[in-house]
Design goal:
45% of the residues are buried. 51% of the residues lie in helices and 15% in strands. Helix 3 (67-83) crosses helix 14, helix 6 crosses helix 8 and helix 6 crosses helix 12 (226-241). It is of the alpha/beta class. The chain folds into 2 domains: 2-115 and 228-290, 3-Layer(aba) Sandwich (Rossmann fold), CATH 3.40.50.1860; 118-226, 3-Layer(aba) Sandwich (Rossmann fold), CATH 3.40.50. The protein is globular, with a radius of gyration of 18 Å. The protein is built from 14 helices and 10 strands. The strands form 2 sheets. Strands 4-3-1-2-9-10 form a 6-stranded parallel beta sheet, with helices on both faces. It has a 4-stranded parallel beta sheet with strand order 6-5-7-8, sandwiched between helices.
């Protein structure tokens, strides 16, 4: 804990030296609406923080992308967020957290960057020993959750299933479509056959499917949403860095790389309000920042 505190102190000193223009904004990004689960937790746990949210909807879904593609996408997003002087970034995307976070942290050493996988893994081992993970194909193939869970508890057993159809169905607003239930049953059955006691949402989109998933898995199975745990980690990091905001927040700013309209339509359901959403072309912005 002492090493973590000293490391955070060094990051805080670097931030002060590197950012003459102070910022009260936390950057949050995902491939689409999945990160709204993290945004809702930020509203609940850190109500005084101002948020900049970016959905990379033009390049969704991330789950079928290569590691090099994901790294480049994240690099562009963080360069753009740095141009907005964010004080912290939360990767509200398991695929990015699995494939890009270590590389990107090295490229942006003065910016605190939090991923969702380690907080989710820590929460999972606190509730069970037979742990199932549903995620995108890329996250499942990376084996990131298994590695993170076993690092925390080597006695745990982990089974992972890639669910490529979930994100498109959620982005299309087809939560209660009978087809979605059939797809969910197909993905979950291999995990139920292993008698799991814990199920991790290995993609921030998936909590939107909670009514569907809860109707299929036994009530004894604990559902782990890493969103609440990454926000708890963010709160702790802000406290250590002395960056927590105590005054009322500014309105959340929403940006997407694709057509804003579908994002607005779905966000209205999850947030209970109609967000103002701007479109931004990230590669062009990233090139301008780099030059």
């Amino acid at each position: 804990m002492k090493n973590q505190a000293s490391g955070a102190a060094r990051r805080a000193e670097s931030l002060l030296q590197a950012s003459p223009q102070s910022s009260d904004v936390i950057g949050v990004f995902d491939s689409g609406v999945g990160g709204l689960t993290v945004l809702r937790e930020l509203y609940r746990q850190l109500p005084n923080e101002s948020i900049l949210y970016f959905g990379d909807t033009a390049r969704l879904p991330y789950g079928a992308r290569s590691q090099l593609e994901i790294e480049q996408f994240v690099r562009e997003i963080l360069a753009w967020m740095e141009s907005h002087h964010v004080k912290m970034v939360i990767m509200a995307c398991n695929t990015s957290s699995a494939l890009a976070i270590e590389t990107i942290r090295q490229e942006f050493p003065r910016l605190p960057i939090l991923g969702v996988i380690l907080p989710g893994a820590r929460a999972a081992v606190q509730t069970g020993k037979r742990i199932g993970v549903i995620s995108t194909l890329a996250t499942a193939q990376s084996d990131a959750y298994r590695q993170a869970i076993l690092e925390v508890d080597g006695a745990a057993q982990v089974w992972q299933v890639g669910c490529p159809e979930f994100v498109p169905l959620i982005e299309q607003g087809r939560i209660h479509d009978p087809y979605t239930y059939r797809v969910a049953e197909k993905y979950l059955q291999p995990l139920l056959n292993q008698h799991i006691d814990t199920l991790v949402y290995g993609c921030t989109h998936y909590p939107h499917l909670a009514p569907v998933i809860r109707s299929i898995v036994p009530r004894s199975v604990r559902l782990i949403d890493p969103a609440s745990h990454v926000v708890l980690a963010a709160a702790q990091e802000l406290d250590v860095l002395g960056l927590r905001h105590t005054r009322p927040p500014k309105p959340t700013r929403f940006y997407v790389s694709g057509d804003p309209h579908p994002f607005v339509q779905i966000s209205r359901q999850w947030l209970g309000c109609t967000p103002l959403v701007e479109q931004v072309r990230l590669p062009e912005v990233a090139e301008q920042v780099a030059s």
